[in-house]
Amino acid sequence: MIVLNLDEYNIHKKIILKELSRTLFVYPTDTIYGIGCNATDDKLVARIRKIKNTKLPLSVIIPNKEWIYNNCVVTEEAEEWIRKLPGPYTLILKLKNKKALAKNVFDTTNETVGVRMPNHWFLAVVYQLNFPIITTSANISGQDIMTSLDDLDPLIRNNVDYVFFDGDKIGAPSTIINLAGHHIEITPRIENIPHEQSSIKFPLEEISLNR
Q1: What region, left, alpha or beta, does residue 130 occupy, with left being phi > 0 and alpha being psi -120 to 50 degrees?
Q2: Could you give all domains of the chain from N- to C-terminal order, each with its CATH number?
């Protein structure tokens, strides 16, 4: 397991980007630490499911807003929430292109997927990868979330090749905005825990396409 900060990533960026397409890794967001992989690789996704011990649908961090328009059903209500990205939200949308993700990622019954664009420098990494990655909390289902390197579960520690570390995080998961039904359903974050205000070090206009 290799632990990296942003500066170390930038030094070895070309090599690391190649590695991230075929391995599991832990990374920071504007809320909590996540564990992820290439969301188009069903074998990698299956490894995360086994480690997390979960059968629930998984969400993804997308490289840019264009991914949403190309692969999801976008209603007028969804447009309003897409404008808020990047931010601490997971948007549940109908998936119109089922080939955009591995089948073991999304809810195949309702054909929906949760999409994220965190307000954090790690979004630039996903932009450079140019494919969606799994985003789920870096913990075993039912256990405490990771807040520092010291409390990273040994099972996860032994199954990831990279950890992008950004200091201790004491936060809450993103707010879930379900836009796939007839009515918008919002599952709020834990109250009184503000999301991280981060200065994103990349050309935001390339990722946050205006519509």
Answers
A1: left
A2: 2-188 (3.90.870.10)
pLDDT in tens, 83-95: 999 999 999 999 9
What pTM was estimated for this model as a whole?
A: 0.87
Instruction: Mention every residue, 6+ apart, whose C-beta is less than 8 A from residue 206.
Output: 64, 127
Q: What is the DSSP letter of 211?
A: -
Distance CA 59, CA 16 (A): 23
* Closest by CA position to 110, among listed 189, 182, 186, 35: 182
Whose CA is closest to 111, among 95, 97, 99?
95
- Within 8 A by CB and 6+ apart from 191, the residues are none
Expressed in angstroms, the distance from the first to the final Cα of the chain is 40
- Categorize the per-residue pLDDT at 189 as very low, low, confident or very high, splitting at 50, 70 and 90: low
- Tell me how far the alpha carbon of residue 161 is from its chain's centroid: 17
| Strand pairing category for 34-36 and 175-178 | unpaired
In angstroms, the Cα distances linking 37 to 7, 17, 23, 138, 173 are 21, 12, 6, 12, 18
| Tens of pLDDT, residues 14-71 | 999 999 999 999 999 999 999 999 999 999 999 999 999 999 999 999 999 999 999 9
